[in-house]
Structure formats: C-alpha cells, structure tokens
Write a structure and sequence with these properties.
The structure is a single chain. Helix content is 21%, strand content 17%. It is an alpha+beta fold and 206 residues long. It has one domain: Restriction Endonuclease (3-Layer(aba) Sandwich). Strands 4-7-8-9-10 form a five-stranded mixed β-sheet, sandwiched between helices. It has a three-stranded antiparallel β-sheet with strand order 1-2-3. A two-stranded antiparallel ribbon has the order 5-6. The longest helix has 13 residues. The C terminus is likely disordered.
Amino acid sequence: MKHGGRKIGSKKSDTRWEAPDGSLWDSFFEYEVFRSAKLVNAPIRKCVKGKPDAPGSDTYSYWDSSNRRSQCRACGSSEVGQLRSYTPDFVWSPEVLPKESDFQGSAGGKPERYVADAKGYLRAGKRALLRSFKKARPDIDIRLIFERDYRISKTATITEWCRKTLRAPHIRWAGRFPTTATDWIAPYEPKGRKSAKARNQSVLQD
C-alpha cells in the first residue's frame, strides 16, 4: 500500500518519487525503506551528496581498477583505473538519535554505524561498480536492502551474488524478513524456524 506521494519521473524507467512532505527519492521503495525505519524511531537519515570524503558529505571516493585491459601508455603498467565517487542512500548511526533516545538495536544495545542502499533491480554495470567500491573501500560497512530476491542468472539470485562476490553478510530483501525495520536494517539472526507465512511477509508493512 502506498502511503501518499507521487511518481515524478516522466518515463517508466524513471522511478523518482516525491513524498507527502515534499522530499525527493530515487524510488518509492527507497522512500518506504526510510519511512518504515522512522516509524520505529530507528537511527537513520538520508545521505548527503557532496564532495567525496569531505566533512558533512556522505559521498565516498574509490579507485575503480575493474578494466583489466587498460594499460598506461607512458609506462606500460596495467595498474591503472579511474577515480570514482559513490553516495549510499542512508546512514544508520547512534549519532542520528537524540541524546535522550532509548532505542535498542537487535543485539540489545546501541547500533553501530554503517551505510545502506535500497535497491530495486541492480543491472550488471551497477553490480560491477558496487564490487569495485567494496574492494577499494573495505573500511566502509555497507548494507543492501533489495525489493525482491530476483535472479540475475540461471544459477544465482541477487542476494547470492552479494554474499559470494561482495562477501557481504548483511543483505536483506523485503519479502523474507519480519515486519520490524530494526530486524532488516540492523544485523539479524533468525531464532528458530519461521512459518512460510511469516517468511513471506513484507518488511514494508506497518
């Protein structure tokens, strides 16, 4: 169910969304991820795009050396690449909370700092850039939340690709985990076997 707002992209591929408060989002899914987290007063805020690695900016610089066919004309070295920048969707951090907040993370304490991205379909080119970022910036703890666990090949789904290629343990998708935002955006460990109905519930429900 869509909680107000409207699609502002003029093309089908343009998924930009305007929320009821006038804020702009890359998609309705991204807005719903943020909204559902705020409903439980989770320590989350939208990332600020700016100069890479500058104070107050959530944009990170990284060296992309994924094109192995490149070669430096001056010295002949194959150790070449391109300096790129990457801005996630959200920051999850205790610093986002008011000082008087008593929010408890899924581990029973204040949650650690990390960044998160809400994704619909991640095309091959975007997956390659994400792989380069993860390799170049192991210091950044990034979590991914997918709208669904779709197949990217005959043998792998997007979450399987993330765990194998990115070696990222904290991957979520909306149709599998419980409805509380603190379970899918914070580290989540299932306790016992859940029913098929519970596994299929969307985290984006109230």
